[in-house]
Amino acid sequence: MLFNSVTFFIFLAAVVALYYAFPRLRMYVLAVANAAFYAYAGVGYFLLFAGIVAIVYAISKGLGGSRGKLALAGGLAVVLGNLFFFKYTIFLIENIERALGIEFDFAGTFLDDRMILLPIGISFYSFQLIAYLVDVYRKKLEPSRSLLEFWVFISLFAHSAAGPILRGNDFLPQLRRIENVSFIDRRFKLGIAFLLLGLTKKLVIVEFIAPYVNEYFGRAGTLTGGEAWTAAYLFAFQIYFDFSAYSEMAVGIGFLLGLKLDLNFKTPYLSANPNEFWRRWHITLSQWIRDYIFIPLGGSRVANWRIYCNLIAAMAISGLWHGAAWTFILWGVYHGVLSAGHRLYRRLLKGRKVEAWTATRVYKIGAVIVFFHLTVVGWVFFRADGMQEAMYMLKQMAAIHHIQLTEETKKLLLVVVALYGLHLAESFIVSRFGKFIQAWRIRVPFVVRGAVYTIIATVLLAYLFKGESSSFIYFQF
């Protein structure tokens, strides 16, 4: 059930109505709503998901006992086994075949067509289950009090298909107070605003960009340098506006229900270095990678060379999490190298006179421009259909002196400039959001506000009823 569909908004309206009509039954309302949301995508995968949640819940009851390590190992085996089977089986088989120079015969088996359909949200709910198991084992989190509570926590339809990744310490206390949540007009309006913001990004901006991205990457092996750069720029904004749209709609749904979900993006293309970028991009995943991979590997408490290795290893795992392909792994390694390189760069500058210059506005602007382009280069690995296409595009992009622009690429590069301008405007508005809201309410007449709302709603409804909008990119992960 796509967030950008009429069906979903009918579903959401029914859930919100029942939620406020029956305060004492809210956990049951959400439990059924979550089940319906997943069953809509396929009853079989819903039953699998529900079974995994029930098994992990049962196993987690033994995390505090004398066999806590065994329970933790069992829980992680269930979660990772489920994830690896659906997401990495074909990738592993194909790489074994390539390494050994053989081809397995799967005729008559479920692997006959070399395809396993990926259950919706499997990567996100797997990471959430892993975090829960580890936190309960470490006694950083009070275990869930009931299977009902645990199911609602893990499966909440607002976020579990594509994030943000919720932590038990942040969300379980909210569920335990859920009967006391009252309807607050301002919070409800804020939820509607986030929903409209996300829909606008998805239906207007992303749907305009997507055909060009698909067309260019569809013929990646024949692109000129100008076309390759144009494709990479456009995809950078497609994936940002698409994923931030979903995340903001998730936050908006949370506000409608009186629940707080974390923002996943904070204008990441204004970052001046890798550390800043990962504090702004897919924030909940970045925090998960830090807490459950980077720090257990030794984090920053070890020798510098090991820190660099830890950064690269953590980001390689992040890349593999995104998809079962070497291009995703290379994308992760690439960002790991950028992070390690920046750490080494800062270390070399420390104590030198030139270090003070890095705090100037000129340096900051230059660093943002440079790092934005480094990020764009990385997106080629993420989006290309294969390694050969990615390397060809990067080769074309590297030949700067040979780049020529067609009339179409010139127009599309103007679109890219406009999109970056929107990104800057978004940063400006978000940083002063409270003031803008207050000015909007006080200084703008009610009639004008009503007219603006009507126009926005009409345009978005027109897009919704067209029924041609694509799925969110991160649904495939």
TrEMBL record:
It comes from the Bacteria. InterPro entries: Ac/AlaTfrase_AlgI/DltB, AlgI, MB_O-acyltransferase, MBOAT_fam. The keyword Nucleotide-binding does not apply. The chain crosses the membrane at residues 6-23, 35-59, 71-93, 114-134, 150-169, 190-213, 233-259, 328-345, 365-382, 412-434, 446-465. One of its GO terms (molecular function) is acyltransferase activity. One of its GO terms (cellular component) is plasma membrane. Keywords: Acyltransferase, Cell membrane, Membrane, Transferase, Transmembrane, Transmembrane helix. Signal peptide: none annotated. Its main location: membrane. It is found in: Cell membrane. One of its GO terms (biological process) is alginic acid biosynthetic process. Pfam families: MBOAT. The keyword rRNA-binding does not apply. It is a multi-pass membrane protein. Belongs to the membrane-bound acyltransferase family. This is MBOAT family protein. The lineage of its organism: Bacteria, Bacillati, Bacillota, Bacilli, Bacillales.
